[in-house]
Amino acid sequence: MTENIKDKVVVITGASSGLGEETARHLVASGAKVALGARRLDKLNALVAELGVENASAFEGDVTNREAVEAFVTDARAKWGKIDAMLHNAGVMPLAPLAMKRTDEWDRCIDVNLKGVLYGIGAVLPIMQEQGYGQNLFVSSVAGHVVNPVGAVYCATKFGVRAIAESLRQEVKGHGPLRTTILSPGAVDTELPGSVKAEGVHEAVVGLYDQYAIPASSFARSVIFALSQPAEVDINEILFRPTSQE
Ligand code: NDP
């Protein structure tokens, strides 16, 4: 059990793989309860079976659908009685040069990475304000700090996540212990490179991840650190990357 984490209820979007999945494991091992959301219900159900129904619940939904996000958060509160934190984690990374004009991917990236996060805030903030406490954790990236030539849209969404999070922090500070944390990882070994479809870029990204991506436990530990602080301490941002990443 980890101090200040035991019995906390944490809602996680994008919990069917990668960072969300691994964080759910670390949270339950630290004594928390987790409400898991994603589109692949089979993966969520397998994770609930692993973690135990007394510790985890699953909800199928697409974060680009506002009603689905509202239903997920409402279901989580009904099941667990409260929401201590929400990890706004679902995301895609369709890297490609703008000149390839992959407009469907531009739309998808903005819809999942930005609108999905806004819908999550819209769903959970009234609950946290009513409770008088809560912590929102956002997943930006090193790509939310520096741009690269194939990352125009992805970087824009991850810079945007940081802007939304910091604006939220300023909006809610002083209204009870409402905390805001930005997590900005570098390359972490997950399914994410699979969302890079552009020819040439996919191979390059997979090559870099094969070279130096670090385990998802690195991210999960940063979430545990931010969540385990006493109520008066707000860890605003954690930026980390593989030692050999630029
Ligand atoms: P994964 O591809 O392993 O996981 C992405 C998760 O998001 C999955 O659970 C997926 O679930 C979910 N997801 C994607 N689209 C939707 C959608 N429309 N509705 C609901 N859920 C969706 O990648 P990661 O774990 O690496 O990514 C998690 C976050 O971390 C992302 O925001 C990513 O940008 C960020 N990040 C990752 C880094 C890395 O190197 N891995 C580095 C920096 C940031 P499903 O398909 O079942 O819906």
TrEMBL record:
Domain of life: Bacteria
GO cellular component: membrane
SUPFAM superfamilies cross-referenced by the UniProt entry: NAD(P)-binding Rossmann-fold domains (SSF51735)
Keywords, comma-separated and alphabetical: Oxidoreductase
Gene Ontology MF annotations: oxidoreductase activity, acting on the CH-OH group of donors, NAD or NADP as acceptor
InterPro entries (alphabetical): NAD(P)-bd_dom_sf, Sc_DH/Rdtase_CS, SDR_fam
Pfam families tied to this protein: adh_short
Family statement: Belongs to the short-chain dehydrogenases/reductases (SDR) family.
Name of the protein in question: NADP-dependent 3-hydroxy acid dehydrogenase YdfG
Species annotation: Aliiruegeria lutimaris
